[in-house]
Design a protein that fits this description.
- With 269 residues, the protein is an alpha+beta fold.
- The chain has 4 helices and 14 strands.
- It is globular and about 60 Å long.
Length: 269
């Protein structure tokens, strides 16, 4: 982990852009797309849950969970019932970004059926959660994970289930304790993928600098991957900050959730 002052110095030095190769460019694009979906779906689940609690009494007796799908700018949230063999929708909400557009509790006479893909996503959550619990991963806070499910790109691609450390303090962003489990088309869990080796958290409002908080740059060393991941993009969006990521061989990346990932190569200077 490096101090934010280092990142500020690097930006002001006007480093030369490094051109990403084909495989690397693909990994970066996937990280951007997944990170933005994670943020959009997490926001929809958060705001939709607040709305749902005002519409459904004793939800713990009716609901089995939730999923979100759709593009990040127009996500749809579905809370489903506790029928594990054949789940049905109970509550549906639509969003424009993180803004709730509409929501309703489905009545007895309405179509409450779920698409095959949504049923597959729901089944994947159960499979992935069993794998996560069996692995006994480290938790960074004594709160349940926030779960986000990304739909498969095609029928043969896996469903990715993310377990994110919840933000329990609005002035602290958790970077550690995030995991992903990919569930195959035949509903088998892959290995649990950790995005850090330890619990890492950043204060996002430095003492005495609250007026300049949004200009603060967060800087982190990441040696598990050659390039930044979707978690860095997601964390940048949650924090509303630029995140500088230092990977192997002292490569430096500027991660901006709204603008993407910008690689730097100081050795070219």
């Amino acid at each position: 982990m490096r101090p934010a002052s280092l990142a500020l110095a690097l930006v002001s030095a006007s480093p030369v852009h490094a051109q990403a190769g084909g495989d690397e460019a693909g990994a970066l694009q996937a990280a951007i797309e997944r990170g933005r979906l994670l943020y959009s779906y997490d926001q929809a689940a958060w705001h939709g849950t607040d709305d749902m609690l005002g519409k459904i009494k004793k939800p713990q007796e009716r609901l089995g969970g939730w999923i979100v799908d759709g593009p990040p700018e127009s996500a749809e949230l579905v809370f489903y019932d506790q029928n594990t063999a054949d789940p049905h929708a109970v509550y549906v909400a639509t969003f424009n970004g993180s803004k709730l557009l509409s929501s309703r509790v489905l009545g007895p006479g309405e179509d409450r059926s779920l698409t095959p893909q949504r049923k597959r996503m729901i089944a994947a959550v159960r499979t992935a959660t069993a794998a996560l619990e069996a692995s006994q991963v480290k938790r960074c806070v004594e709160k349940p994970f926030n779960t986000v499910v990304l739909p498969p790109a095609s029928a043969n691609d896996p469903v990715s289930v993310y377990y994110l450390t919840p933000q329990i303090d609005t002035k602290v962003i958790p970077f550690g304790g995030h995991y992903r489990v990919d569930v195959s088309a035949d509903n088998k869990a892959g290995p649990v993928r950790a995005f850090t080796k330890s619990c890492i958290a950043f204060p996002i409002e430095p003492p005495g600098k609250s007026k300049n908080a949004k200009s603060t740059i967060l800087t982190i060393t990441h040696l598990l991957d050659p390039t930044p991941t979707e978690i860095h993009v997601f964390s940048s969006l949650v924090a509303g900050r630029l995140v500088m990521v230092i990977t192997a061989a002292e490569r430096i990346w500027s991660v901006d959730g709204d603008r993407g990932i910008r690689p730097f190569d100081l050795r070219a200077r």
